[in-house]
């Protein structure tokens, strides 16, 4: 998987970087299933400790179907980030079309417990032409 982050959003001193890769070996194109893995790096550029509490995703496919996903933390974790720290995780997305997109936001808590949202940049899910089925 590429370590090059193709998509970046910065909100209130917190940077979210995303790298996405199509996974042909995990896809079942003949059955109408395409699978991508995305790597996210969250960087705390603030001068306070913050904690990721929830995630909100808007996942769309090329047929116009939209799936909203809300949940606690990321991949079962609610990481605490000291100033200057980063948190990396990898997750995946399966669609029934060969193209789509994801975007959303994380909700973090400030040191005093108040909440703030951090944008997750919009990124495209696109299978290479030879994988379009």
Automatic annotation (TrEMBL):
Q: Which Gene3D superfamilies match?
A: ApaG domain (2.60.40.1470)
Cite the SUPFAM superfamilies for this sequence.
ApaG-like
Q: What is the top-level taxon of the source organism? A: Bacteria
A Pfam family assignment: DUF525
Chain ranges of the ApaG domain: 8-132
Q: Which InterPro entries match?
A: ApaG_domain (IPR007474), ApaG_sf (IPR036767)
**In its UniProt entry, what is this protein called?**
Co2+/Mg2+ efflux protein ApaG
Source organism of this protein record: Aurantiacibacter gilvus
The gene for this chain is apaG
């Amino acid at each position: 998987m590429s370590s090059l982050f193709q998509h970046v959003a910065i909100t209130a001193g917190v940077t979210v970087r995303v790298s996405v890769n199509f996974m042909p070996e995990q896809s079942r194109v003949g059955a109408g299933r395409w699978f991508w893995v995305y790597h996210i790096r969250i960087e705390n550029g603030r001068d306070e400790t913050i904690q990721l509490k929830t995630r909100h995703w808007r996942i769309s496919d090329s047929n116009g179907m939209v799936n909203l996903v809300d949940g606690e933390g990321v991949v079962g974790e609610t990481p605490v980030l000291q100033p200057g720290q980063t948190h990396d995780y990898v997750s995946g997305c399966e669609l029934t079309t060969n193209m789509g997109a994801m975007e959303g936001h994380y909700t973090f808590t400030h040191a005093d417990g108040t909440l703030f949202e951090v944008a997750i940049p919009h990124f495209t899910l696109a299978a290479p032409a030879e994988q379009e089925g």
